[in-house]
Request: fold
Amino acid sequence: MNISNRVKQIKKSAIHEMTRLSKQYDDVAFLSWAKPTSGTPEHIGNAAVSAINKGLTGGYSQNEGLPELRNEIAKKLKRDNNIEANISQIIVTVGAIEGLAAAVMAAIDPGDEVILPTPTYSTHIRQVQIASGKPVLVPLIEEKNFALDIQSIKEAITPRTKAIMYCSPNNPTGTVFPEEKLRQIAEISLENNLMVITDEAYEYFIYDDNKHFSIASIPEMKKNVISCFTFTKTYAMTGWRIGYLHADEEVIPQIKKAHIPFAICAPVVSQYAALAALKGSQNCVEEFGNHYLNMRNLMCERLDKLKSVFEYQKPGGSYLMFPKILLKEGKDSISFCKKLLKEARVSTTPGIAFGPTGESHLRLSFCVSEEEINKAFDRMEKYFQK
Ligand SMILES: Cc1ncc(COP(=O)(O)O)c(C=O)c1O
Reply:
């Protein structure tokens, strides 16, 4: 079988493996899913049905997306991200994922290096590999709540470095990178002519005194940032596969060349749904955020009772957290997770899935109900007391 080395080097996802294993057992308490568990708000679905009934969804749209949708996105970027956007700087994509993949394809040549602060969303690492690039993993500083290590990032730069790619709030740690640190990243990128590729999927789920900062709001960064966003998390629209990216109008035609062979355009029915999401009431976003905040607090309280097993940093955003396993058997996070699933019927995600610095950790998701968290922790308390 002739399969490219580019694809062969990509390891099987530990996340999907755990999902597969979880299905073998009945009555599992799930803390392993990073997707919103609430349904898509009704008015968004209704708008899609209405677009279908009007016969608007059977063809392709413009490759970069419907102009009226891009217009609403530009307004949102100005209002919520402080980005001076216009519609020629936007491509509507198949979720954030396709936007990120197209961004990486446009930014790097084979052999180029991309710096990724880790632990990070493993798909980013794979996107660099699939573009025949080299992921350069720079550890976050766990003791400082998984802060960006600016000095180590500077030291990781070589003549082959082309980009820095990060998500804030971060999957899996829930860290919100503060403006001050992102301004330092901006300086590094300008000094070394690097592209910064951002994944801002969790931008609306921010807690305590944290603030979401979009690096593209720095005017000097205009030509050095590709920012990727999604409707998946904000409006619980995982299955609609709809997101968008923002970049300078001179960069957009280049990214479009990568977007077209993979997607032609984002699903048109989903573009109409996204339009309704942006134009309609934003109460749903606030409701999701309040629920996640309550669930974060509950999960932290429950983790406090398992101090001999886990040590954690409180996440400032997203609906994910990344406790360290203090037990000796936690050094191998995959076997630890498998055992927890088999013996306690609790499904979690092994930390190694997020890069080598993720080993000895678990990723826990709190985008679930109060009952699910209590069920999982009641079981873990009993299991670890044995
Ligand atoms: C950081 C991050 N980016 C992107 C995605 C996926 O986004 P989309 O559904 O918009 O492709 C996820 C999903 O878990 C994520 O955690």
User: Anything to note?
Assistant: The first helix runs from residue 5 to 8.
